[in-house]
Amino acid sequence: MIWHIIHILDILLWVFMAASVAYILFFALVSTLWKKRVSDLTTFLTGKVLSMRKKEFFSYLILYPAYNEDRVIVSSVQKFIGQYYPYKSFHVAVISDHMQPETNQKLSELPITLLQPVFEKSSKAKAMQYAMDQIKEEYDYIVILDADNVVESHFLEQLNEECAKGYKAIQCHRCAKNNDNDIAVLDGVSEEINNTIFRKAHNRIGLSSALIGSGMCFDYRWFKENVYKLSTAGEDRELEALLLRQKVHIQYMPHIHVFDEKVSNKDNFQKQRLRWMTAQIQSLFNLLPYIPNAIATFNLDLIDKTIQQALIPRSMLVVATFGIAFLMTPISLFFDNYWYIKWWCLFLAICIALYIATPKQLRKHSVFGKILALPKLVWKMVLNILKIDRKNTDFIHTTHDK
Description:
This protein is of the alpha/beta class. The protein has helices spanning about 1-30, 40-45, 75-80, 100-110, 125-135, 155-165, 180-205, 220-225, 235-245, 265-285, 290-295, 300-310, 315-335, 340-355, 365-370, 375-385, and strands at about 60-65, 90-95, 115, 140-145, 150, 170-175, 215-220, 250-260. About 50% of the residues lie in helices and about 10% in strands.
């Protein structure tokens, strides 16, 4: 009797984890699909030859919500204002929250708008809302960057070409700018896997890309109307939900790079993942009430986004499936059954999915050799589960290493 109950629990746990593995494997495979390019002749016959039009330069507001970012913000802004783009068509604004007077002095000497709010409880959402209150000029688009983000000099020029196609929400390709230790490398690889599964693959079959939190571009009027609806520390997931509920497509641009500093120590990794996991749970509970209407209106993007929030983190899947398979093997063999096989199959499936989703240039022995750091990081993520409070809206800041 007891073994019958254990077997049922074993199957239920396997099905629960298999659902997340199946989702990841499916979109990893979708990412390998060939994307048909529109030929110049086809473009000409459809009457959409962009080269025959007068080039339009949209205006952009570049927003840097910066909380305690004294180490990186000045250099990031200095690099950005050197854009190869008409100077009068973009403007940079920095929301300086809890930064040193010396930093603010350096920023005030740059041709930007410096905002210095005083919040009782800081958050990125509050910073963006404050900026919308203070900035009276109107723009065509708004770009959200983190304080540590660095872009190339033709960033706005590339972005302008995509905005000319009519997109209202764009997620740029955020990638690592540092790989100084094992944790930073794994964090960078994890981001690229996210780019493949939740952005590139989704767009391949017509679904919206996921947002990341920075390197985001929105229609200015849409953003100004909706930014005041944000209330949690997971502002990117809230923005996603608002866009998808309004059936606004999110386009991913893999060729427009935003270089982001990856976490390089275990404490910052734990803080970052705690913030993400809390935001994921909050997003799941916020989206569930809209599912009946999403099904009725065939809003596949919103349904898919809700499923995403219920997924088990990939690193947990890797460690958990391997651990269970390893433990189940001798037990199953001792009792002359084959329960362990399905766990090894699940472990193999998640490994194949992650291998496919990892860009070719990162499939190196030097990268996979750093997997040894993964179990300790996953253990910290498990400890984070005990700290999750889905009603908590406090901002969890991840500091940059000096």
